[in-house]
Here is the input.
Amino acid sequence: MEILGATPTRNLALELARVTEAAAMMAGRFMGRGDKEGADQAAVNAMRLILGTVDMNGVIVIGEGEKDKAPMLFNGEVVGNGSKPDVDVAVDPIDGTRPLAFGRSNSLAMVAIAPRGTMFDPGPFVYMNKIAVGPEAKGKINIEKSITENLNAIAKAKGKAVEDLTTIILDRPRHEAMVAEIRKAGARIRQIPDGDVAAALMTARSDSGVDVLFGVGGTPEGVITACALRAMGGEIQGKLYARDDGELRRGREAGYDFDKVLTMNDLVSSEDVFFATTGITDGELLQGVRYYGDHITTDTLVVRGLTGTVRQITATHTTHKLENLTSVHY
Here is the structure.
């Protein structure tokens, strides 16, 4: 990748912060208004506008879907201003459209980039079983082992008893057996309605109180999470999850292996990754957008894989100057 060199390279993640800030500021206007489609379109429009100014030749690997269903930020769309480097791009203009629509917590705008050809392309197979941990338990997890075995390994790595661990898992009927095993093992459980990217990143934040993420969530979100956890020192493993026999058959016919463990290297095979996410609604990871008439504030997490640098940026945006510059009404 051409951004590598003997001297420190420009941090593209800081440019990506502008992308997620713009998406969050536009989407945040829809908080609690019950309009998921309107919020998503606003975030997509803002994200695409700013992506077009970033110095990169990007191809969207993880996007809003296929071209015929997503007119912008679709899989395969070229973004950036066309200059080097050549990169894969993963976007999620709103991770948590339902929480945003109903005024709930943990809605985020996020984007990640990595060298061209290094991101896993899940195609149409959108679910995967996941386990994610922070730096202390990196290298100690194995998704093919039982939840109890993983909890014991994580507890040992962190110098805790299993009873001291806090797990986090999406509140879904498909997780009933997992929840039962966690309870039997004695660990604590936080069941969340949405947002397993934020939940996975919380495992890498020592102040979050979360030790491990379990459960089936989105495959695209798993790829984005892998980009972030590479820089934050954590780890994620996954296995593609078929919702029925028909999907399993189609996946195997297309060459996807539902028995294969997808390691961090499978999900994104380069350390040279960049990731940014901005809070849309308030959450434990980031504060949501605040509107003050003449200015807007945002809270953004920015990470860079090569250096392992993690920044949290609180920004104040002067509304009329933004609108004069972009002709966008924030």
